[in-house]
Write a structure and sequence with these properties.
153 residues; 4 helices; five-stranded mixed beta sheet; alpha/beta
Length: 153
Amino acid sequence: MSPENRGYADNGDAFLKAAAAAHGAGRKVALGDFRGRLVFLNFFATWCVPCREEMPPLNSLYTALKNEGFVVLGVSIDPSETQVKSFVAEKNITYPVLMDSEKEVYFDLYAVLVLPTSFLIDKDGMIAEKILGERDWNSAEMKEKIRTLLKKR
């Protein structure tokens, strides 16, 4: 994303406060909770085939880089939390998966129109890149891109 198109990703820390963010014991999550770390925000749905296919490589990327300050947050727009929990267990996803069934974050805050859509959010909470569509997140090229962003202050 070009510098003139970059914006604050957390909209004043409003991220997922309005949307019922469920992870673990149903605690609320704000993007500002991750300030100082590189955040990969991935919007998906369990019925979306490209979303389903990219999640295992994304989980591998997360596993490889989480100790270096890399955070992955999956945001499901599915209506059923039960269905999402089953899907996460089936795919062995280890990163936090949040719910946005009302699409308040998906559409209202991030204007996402295509699934999957991902955002790389830098350590200052700025959107560094918006990525439309499926990718091989565990590729050497992607790992290098993430490591480069992790090194930036």
